[in-house]
Design a protein that fits this description.
Blueprint lengths: L2 H17 L29 H10 L10 H10 L27 H10 L2 H4 L4 H10 L28 H10 L2 H4 L4 H10 L20 H10 L24 H10 L3
Helix pairs in contact: 2-3, 4-6, 7-9
Length: 260
């Protein structure tokens, strides 16, 4: 800051100090602002109310003119660990304790350090990892398909469905279907996006006579594609997992469906 700018700043601060004498912290104006307290920006105030008030009580200029490097310096010195978010992203797994500050997912790191600044100033402790599992999507348990329930019909309140490829496909489109419940939206996505399974009344009943026997097995063999190719409508009931192919997984399901 030049000498002239510093003189102007001191004059403004003195003037604001006079007109704001006796007011409460929040009445100096500008708090909270919309931008990060730890970064220079062109608007008054910053987004952490307590830090903003603290800085503006020290230097009211920060609440009436752009939040400059002096305001940031005050935030770094007087707002605890708020500005330690530079540890984000770190190098360690957000979902596991490790010896360094921060963690490797920037959003999760910021969320955790906003709740517990020590996670960005010291080691990422077990409490930091626990907090991450509670508030960060990155720590959500993996989705494992298949689950219970038909893919083509709603079955709240249970999540997922019983055809692996279709379950994976729908939950990639809408994670709620596997983390929440398989509602009408999920069933509709299955009907629109999973080949074959929603057009087949009864899996493995390729001759549509209501039972699965050796006649169906003969038809199943003619539908078998392995890991390549796609199946036509006549083979829809041979595609158990809904991946538009008839392979070994479908054959295993076929054997389990056969009438003794």
């Amino acid at each position: 800051m030049t000498y002239r700018a510093q003189v102007v700043r001191v004059s403004v601060v003195s003037f604001v100090s006079i007109i704001t004498a006796g007011r409460t912290q929040s009445s100096v104006g500008g708090c909270p602002g919309s931008e990060d307290c730890c970064i220079v920006h062109g608007t008054p105030g910053c987004d952490d109310f307590d830090c903003c008030d603290t800085v503006c009580l020290i230097d009211s200029f920060c609440c009436f003119l752009p939040w400059d490097s002096s305001c940031v310096s005050y935030a770094e010195d007087y707002c605890g660990n708020l500005c330690n978010a530079s540890a984000c992203p770190g190098t360690g797994d957000c979902c596991q304790a490790h010896g360094s500050p921060g963690c490797n997912d920037a959003l999760c790191c910021d969320l955790v350090c906003t709740r517990n600044a020590a996670c960005c100033s010291g080691q990422w402790s077990a409490s930091c990892a626990t907090l991450a599992t509670q508030i960060c999507d990155v720590c959500a348990p993996p989705i494992v398909c298949p689950m219970e329930g038909e893919c083509c019909t709603r079955h709240e309140p249970t999540p997922g469905c019983n055809r692996e490829a279709c379950c994976d496909l729908v939950c990639n489109l809408d994670e709620f279907c596997c983390r929440g419940e398989w509602d009408l939206v999920c069933a509709t996505k299955a009907q629109n996006n999973c080949p074959n399974i929603c057009v087949c009344v009864m899996f493995a009943d390729l001759d549509s006579n209501g039972i699965v026997n050796l006649r169906d097995f003969a038809l199943f063999q003619s539908c078998f594609t392995g890991n390549v190719g796609t199946v036509g409508d006549e083979c829809a009931c041979a595609d158990y997992d809904g991946n538009d192919r008839v392979g070994l997984a479908d054959f295993k399901a076929f054997l389990e469906a056969m009438t003794p």
